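Morning, I've got a small favour to ask if you have a moment. It would help a lot if you went through both lines with me. Thanks so much in advance, here it is.

***
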Amino acid sequence: MTTTPIARIADVRMGVTLRGRDATRPALHGSCFMIRISDLSDDGHLTTEDLHQFEPGEDIRPDHFLRPGDVLLPNRGTRCTAYVYDLPLTNVLVGAQFYIVRPDTTKVSAEFLAWFLRTEKAAAHFALRRKGTLVQTVQRKDVLELELPLPPLAKQHSIIALDALAIQERQLSIQLAEKKAAYLQRAMLHAASA
């Protein structure tokens, strides 16, 4: 199968940079929300339902707000995760520690692109190109140059469905191990006190 650089199937831009010490100070009734790196799991899901809410001290260009189907890719650190924005909120931003990847959905599904960005192949690509000692960063050109396989959309959807099942299996395995450990501990405590 042939591969295609992300530059041919998506637009890649950096999240917004808000200036000032209080630029993202929490505000209970703020007009904007922000997704932070810590809000994402390694398997590409939001870990919180309560996004950071704030009132920006400056005007935000409309193209900085997230759109359904935007793929969020952290550009700092060594963690390789990607999340497809799918919330009904309209005034959601990400900071400059993210790239917003807007795919051409006639060529690639956002979910397939996010899945690929979480693979070992993408992680190896970024690991070779990260810059910095204290905080490692990935450059925009490194995202644009990443080659990905581009099967037909129907096959992309099948791969995503299989990945969702694999994630569900991992979660169930963790829950089973936790329940088994708790059961064994109760049984041993019961045996010790008998």
